[in-house]
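Slide 14.
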Amino acid sequence: MPYPVGHHAEVRKNIIQSARRLFNRYGFENVSLQQIMAGAGLTHGGFYSYFKSKSDLYTEVLGCFLTDPEWKSCWEGVHVDLSSTDVGPQVVRAYLSRQHFEDVENSCPMVALPSDVARSGKNVKQAYERVFKAMVSILERSVAEKNRSGHARARAIAALCVGGMVAARSLADRVLADELRDACMAMALKLGNWDTPSRKMSSRKSANSGRRGARSV
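Slide 15: predicted structure.
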């Protein structure tokens, strides 16, 4: 009996999700194809029907809510409305949230995998670059200056978010890690001019509305 329409795409998505969780937790080199396929409920032999190599799969894993519309964040209580005009501060607060900090397996791969990417080839680096550029583009929509200065500001905010979370995750002292996240969040919001009371209220309303909508589904 032939597989139903969409079966191949669904299985491929499951393999990517399994690999993302495992790579985020253990790193690229420490995860085998057998582990990835087992995490997707499949046998090792079927891998090459979906991907040319482990590196080919890796480029697919380097996506998150910034680039992959089907990526499902498991950060409880965190909501980002990418269609909102106030998306900038939402992204900053989500990215540097306690929930993102604690949920290693469901991390944005820009946080979990930078060392692996730095040692990888051009294709992997280009995949990472696409996600970073997408983040900058989203942040830039909420920056007041619509010029080169605004673009540079959005880049700096993105670097603060990614670098701040990488550094916080690397610290043994949880109190210090939380203080670092808070400091990076405060500076990122200030860089975007999103730290004024009116901006804070607007962002909170959007986040609360998203949570109410999520609960009603």
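Speaker note: Residues 109 and 127 are 11 Å apart (CA to CA).
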